[in-house]
Structure prediction request, 401 residues.
Amino acid sequence: MNRRDYIKKSGLTIAGIGLSGLATPSVFTQASLNNEVNEQNEQNTSKPMVDISLNEKFYGCICGAHIGSSMGAVVEGWSYSAIEEKYGTLEELLPYEHYGNGWVRDAGTTEDGIERQKLMITAIMRKGGRVTAEDVRAVWRTEINEKAPGNVSEPFEGELLKMALSNMPARDIGKYCDYSGLNSFARACHPIGLINAGDPASAVDDVFEVGQLYQTSNSRGLQWACVTAVAIASATKPDSTVESIIADINEYCSRSVVNEISRGLRRTENCKDFKELRKAFDPIYNGVGMPYNQSFANEVVTKAICIFKMVDGDVKQAIISGTNFGRDTDCVTAIAAGIAGALTGISSIPVKWIDQVDSATKVNPFTNTKRTMKENSDGLYDAFKNRLNKMNEYYNKMITI
Prediction:
């Protein structure tokens, strides 16, 4: 049995946006989870992914992000010329070391952004639906591995945890992080997009809510995180295409963000592969000489969207392209491949990559949870079904009045 058949036979398929075993009142479907941009869709050239179950889209998103992070982390911070000189084209999972701490991670080990993501997933699983900053802070207090900061998480996250253990409101914690323009949340907020599957407007609301654990509410970092969450929420629609996802980004994200992405897409529209794409960005993004100089959200997210469009949503090609892009490779790849997976599922991902990442997670002494990627995606999917059930119950109760 192949991977797609396995997921389809699990009984978790979609008909329209409805889920098997759930009532699907038409008002809710149209108003909240089927927010299409019809004019743009008429011009679409990509084929809608109507044969992929919502369950598989969740799994594809998580696999794309986790595998992409792991492969990209091997060469994080390298120039693309250095990557090419050593590997030609890197397209396998390898051991690596971060933070100069002597821990050589097993091939397939993920990194700090996935640890943030795992904590959000835990909170969503516990809540059975959308979460607040306080919900995620509660998970920080009990689930963060005290040895994670400086080993598998950024050192500054240890400082945020200390504040989370105080009586400070969760929404105030991000005000005290020095790095408000970074991609800390933009490269990790995939679960926010998934719990708001098909509902980009709510995904934006939740980014500005939960993201305040890391950055201020008016930061550019959170404005750019909206792109990741909106793209994933949009990609889960049954009739979604690459073009309709970009149309939703244009509709729901801030104008300055949309303008920069549009410039990137125009600059790279004729690029045929990642080698041409990365060269096209050389004159634009080349910051050096300051902390996290390669990790500002505008650079990372713009590159990720351009990769996603160039590979037409193919997850494997998004992983390879992002890994060999140079600069903040793990974050670029996590975003590009996560969005691609939410659109096209897991059909293009080699099984050996999935097995290796899951195996590395099981022996990671610093991770915040050792759940497999399937366990993470199923937990999110169950929470999403629970969200729909509650909304359906409310609809059925109130429509009789």
Notes: The two ends are 48 Å apart (CA to CA). The chain is about 55% helix and 0% strand. The domain at 3-40+58-398 is CATH 1.10.4080.10 (ADP-ribosylglycohydrolase fold).
